[in-house]
Design goal:
single chain; alpha+beta; Immunoglobulin-like; five-stranded mixed β-sheet; four-stranded mixed β-sheet; 2 helices; 42% strand
């Protein structure tokens, strides 16, 4: 006749479980407490990322400046790789390789003391332009008298891969200030204005296009004699 098995009480079962798995439980609980402590006590950090000015395609790469309040190292990433890329040599720089909006993210991954943080700066990469003083040949071969006005005509055009017609104004100067300065408003990329030089000598006529939202600035010069 079989001997009936004695039922194990709940207290006995718990005691047996602790005896077998007590150390493992202590380790798991301890690890969880450490993770919880790190998560709760990790401090926030912020990133100060210097703004970036618009660039013109073909411009030299521009240095990036960002610092984390934690003092930890900041890395940079372009989220628009078809427009700009990050060049990491001694100093991280952004290089324009296409037209459009460039977005750069400054990141700090965090550590056991600080949580991760990021900051974003964006700018426009504009098409390069060329400015031509249309009547440069005539101005360089002739002269005017002091106080006599003379017209300067300019044309601004896009440089490939840019397309379209630049807008805005071109400032034209003989280097002596007012009245030796005038402003040509572009219509279909072409404009003109009249200069009046108030002193004799060879003048450096400078035509400066300041750019517009889609096209970058450019300058052209020539010599003109005032007698």
């Amino acid at each position: 006749m079989a001997t009936p098995q004695r039922r194990v009480t709940v207290a006995e079962a718990l005691a047996q479980f602790r005896a077998r798995y007590g150390r493992l439980l202590e380790w798991v609980v301890g690890a969880l407490m450490v993770l919880l402590f790190v998560e709760v006590t990790a401090g926030a950090q912020t990133i100060a990322f210097d703004p970036l000015a618009n660039m013109t395609l073909g411009d030299p790469a521009v240095a990036l400046h960002a610092t984390a309040s934690s003092g930890l190292t900041v890395t940079f990433e372009s989220t628009t790789p078809s427009v700009c890329r990050i060049v990491n040599r001694k100093v991280a720089k952004v290089s324009a390789i296409g037209l459009g909006e460039c977005e750069v993210v400054a990141r700090q991954a965090g550590d056991g003391t600080y949580t991760a943080a990021s900051a974003v700066q964006s700018f426009i990469v504009r098409a390069a332009t060329d400015v031509t003083i249309v009547n440069a040949r005539a101005l360089s071969r002739t002269s005017t008298v002091v106080g006599e006005s003379y017209d300067v005509s300019v044309q601004v055009s896009a440089v490939a891969p840019g397309t379209g017609v630049p807008t805005g104004t071109v400032t034209i100067s003989d280097g002596t200030g007012i009245p030796g300065t005038c402003t040509a408003t572009l219509t279909d990329g072409v404009g003109s204005c009249s200069l009046t030089s108030t002193s004799a000598g060879f003048k450096t006529i400078t035509a400066t296009y300041g750019g517009d939202p889609g096209f970058g600035p450019v300058t052209a010069t020539l010599k003109h004699r005032v007698r």
